[in-house]
Amino acid sequence: MDLKRTQLLLLFFAFLCAGGRKLNGDSIPRCIPIERNALLGFKEGLKDPSNRLSSWVGDDCCTWEGVACDNHTSHVVKLDLRNPHQLSYFDYLPNKWCLGGELRPSLLGLKHLNYLDLSMNDFGGISIPEFMGSFRQLKYLNLSWAYMSGLIPHQLGNLSSLQYLDLSYNYYYDDNFEVPPGFLIIDNAIWISRLSSLRYLNMSYVKFREGAHWLQALNMLPSVVEVHLRHCGINTTSLSLPHVNFTSLSVLDISRNSINSTIPGWLFNISSLEYLDLRGNFINSTIPGWLFNISSLEYLDLSYNFFRGIIPPAIKNLASLKSLDLSGNQFLEGKIPVELGELCKLQYLGLSDINISKSLHELDKVFTGCIKNSLETLYMWNTQLDGYLPDWLGDFRKLKYLDLSGNSISGLVLASLGRLAELVVLSLGQNFLEGVMSEEQFANFTKLKYLDLSQNQLILNLTSDWIPPFQLQMLDIGSCKLEPRFPAWLRMLKNITYLDMSSTGISNAIPDWFWRSFSQIFWLDIFSNGITGSVPDLTDFIHLYYFNLSSNHFEGPLPNFNSSILWVVDLSNNSFSGAIHLDISKSMSNLEYLSLSTNNLSGEIPLSLCHLRYGALDLSKNLLSGELPDCWNHSSFIIVMDFSSNSLSESIPPSICSLPFLESLHLSNNNLSGELPSSLKSCARLNTLDLGQNGFTGKIPTWIGESLLSLKILRLRSNKLVGNIPPNLSRLGALQILDLASNNLSGTIPSSFGNFTAMKVSGEMNGTILKNYTRYNEKMQVTIKGIYIEYAILLPLVIVMDLSNNNLSGMIPEELTNLFGLVSLNLSGNHLTGEITEKIGAFQQLESLDLSRNNLFGGIPSSMIGLTFLSYLNLSYNHLSGRVPIGNQLQTFIDPSIYVGNPDLCGFPLSQKCKDDKTNQGLNAVGGDEQNDNTMDEEGSEMKWLYMSMELGFVVGFWIVFGPLLFNRKWREAYFQHIDQVFNVVYMALATIFTKFKVHNITT
What we know:
1004 residues; 32-stranded mixed β-sheet; 11-stranded parallel β-sheet; 7 helices; globular; disordered C terminus
């Protein structure tokens, strides 16, 4: 007995000593050497640019960052290497804290691992290794946002203990964005069915191949509670299942796929369903009635599908519903059931992008039920609502988010809105609100964080010493009217990160306190004011993302930037001067749009601009000189390069066409010289090539028609080009603007020019010049109707051929009349001969025609009277003869200078009469032979008798109607009263029609 007591005491002291060691800092449990070596081997394969794993030294791996051991066995059971720093939403690639490299199989030494998290890192598009399926004790696996790609190994189906699996948001671009993104892919999802313990599954952005059997796999997971399959490329789903096994399902997200059936009926058998997200599919049906019998539903999102019919009144049965989004569907106009107001627990309601076409007042029956006591969020933007803001909006005392933007709401902003003291977001932008808003209307908005009053006709009457009751983060008052002084009350809003004060009428300088107090700003837009002064260095603005100071009166040097997420910089249309900073692109690695256009910048283009990677670069309309940099092989994703209207010299550098995505190149109005370099033929994606108004010499190369097959605009005007026009330019099937004017080109106009495919049809208003999205608005200066016109928004409609002011000879090819879509044709200032073809009437879209200063002869074809869109015509200084045709559109051309220099032309509007012609007006014939003259004399005689009869009839009719009125006062009074009534009726009808037409134009 004493021996046993002794043993127990020894064990007790041993326990105390162990506890003492723990208290003294000795690590309990201790790391097992085999597992430490496994971790070190795994670390060797990783890239760790920020040295996050610096603690992985020494013997005790249980103390290492991200490693956790079991307290009893000392085995490593948890490895959490999730990136602790949030990825920037605006970074195309993860930040510097990301781990990368490879996943080495040495990790298999951790036999007892049950938790593995490698999320929010950057593994450069590698595949998930097959050995991941060997961790039989793993319960938690998170590889989301890890930049992996490729086929998901079926071996993951061996993880029978797994309860949590997240492989979401894995897509990978290479460093140059030169290949499509890589995704994780599932070819057959049956392996998922073997994860019998799974409760949480997130595979959003994993691509399911056709026939992946995703639904059958999920249906074999009896314990699964939450499933997220957002944006997985799923296009079909079974509408029914023989037996529904996953009855524990509470959350189902299959949004943003391509499902084009009705809502599947098997959902009705999941009585535990609380969250259903079908947003952004192609479901084209009515909403089935059984959906409203799933009484457990708390979240329902059916937005942005093709639901039609009505919103069923049975929606009131979803008594537990807290969030409902029906936005972006095709419900019958105005059919918002009043039963919606009976959802007494509803907190979120989305009805945006639905053609409600009602006055807000007409919805009062919907919004007077118990819903007004619960609703916190109401989104009804872009619903074609009109009328005034109703008083009942002020009854939603719990409302935190109210968005009525993009409608046709008019009138004043009512004081009743001021009762919404809980508002965090108020968005009334893009309406027709008007009147004055004073300080009193904002008095109760103490919780407001976001305020949008933009694109209205509001006047903000806010004194300079006003103290706002809120601390906004976002303020958008673009197009509202402020006083000319920069608003001093902004100084009180120290938390603003988004500020839009464009077109507000400010006309003085920005005070220094603004630049000091708002260095945290993320979005700054003060476009189109009259702001003066200079801009200081913005190196402290490290969060700056969008910066637009365009169309003001800023002067002085350009500011410096120091923001790694900078996306847009627009300083155009100001008076900035001096040189562009040599290191301007140092912190602009993600810049999409840089515009310094229309300033007074001088000096050379800095080489650092070659390191910009994305979007559009616009330095046009400055005083830049020197040569174009030859370093563009450092860039990768530049789409637009506009250096036009400067004083650049020498030749085009070869490296420009090392830009694989270049679509638009503007180098016009410079001093460039030499022959057109053959390196340009590598710019195979070019849609616009504008080299006009330079000093280029030599011939137009034939490789343009062989290599630049995407060209829509080719402008080489005002150079020194010689030789014949290559016939193979007609291979440019997309070409809609061809401008070769003012060169020394010779030879004939190729007959193949009648084959330009895009010129045979009318331009499209919704068409685009650039294929890739960029903020840059493609623009082009075109000579139409005798003047230079710069087109931008309407450019896709412009179809032009201008070969004027060259030395072209021969006849005008009849094949040109195949170009039915031409808007302007200018062949003036050449040596063209022959007659104008009678087929010229085929140019049904032609608005401008200039054939002046040639050697054309013969008559003007009578078919020209069929050019009903023609508004500019110049046939001067040729050898045309005969009568000028009159009729339709030609009858409006009364300026004789149109035909000057053709001495043998006669008839209206010329002063020279045709042979034996007694009148120059009202005739529609060409020629002057004797038979025609006699016929016209006979017709003239008949016309005289007709006019005399009309005059006699007018006199008799006048006295029959008005004679009695002169002698009978009662008749006279009654008559003019009736005339007044008719006038009032007609006037009111026309005024109503005009108002509706105006509103319709504005809203569309």
